[in-house]
Amino acid sequence: MGFTGGVGENAPGIREGICAELGWLGIGIDRQANAHGRSWISPEAGTVGVYLIPTDEEQVLARGAEEGLRECDCATG
Question: What angle do CA 8, 10, 16 make, to 5 degrees?
């Protein structure tokens, strides 16, 4: 399972709460790794890997906008 984006990358309390609710799926969290924002935050004995995946949301939005402008030919006025 992966956490990404502003909240996913920067909110250890939210990550911990989500993982606690999903324990029945075998999802767990290493509290210390989570608190320090490590890239792998599942416990070593966990059955499901839990990861923090960095993303550049601004770049994703800019690429989408550029693609949309190219498709509609709006950029040429």
Answer: 65
Global pTM? 0.74
Write out the two tokens for 32.
């210390």
Give the tokens for residue 7. 């909240």
**Pick from 32, 66, 20: nearest CA to 75:** 66
77 falls in which pLDDT band (50, 70, 90)?
Answer: low
Q: What is the DSSP string of the chain?
A: -EEEHHHHHH-HHHHHHHHHHTGGGT----HHHHHTT-SB-S-TT-SS--EEE---HHHHHHHHHHHHHHHHT-TT-
Residues in the chain: 77
Structure tokens at 8: 């996913």
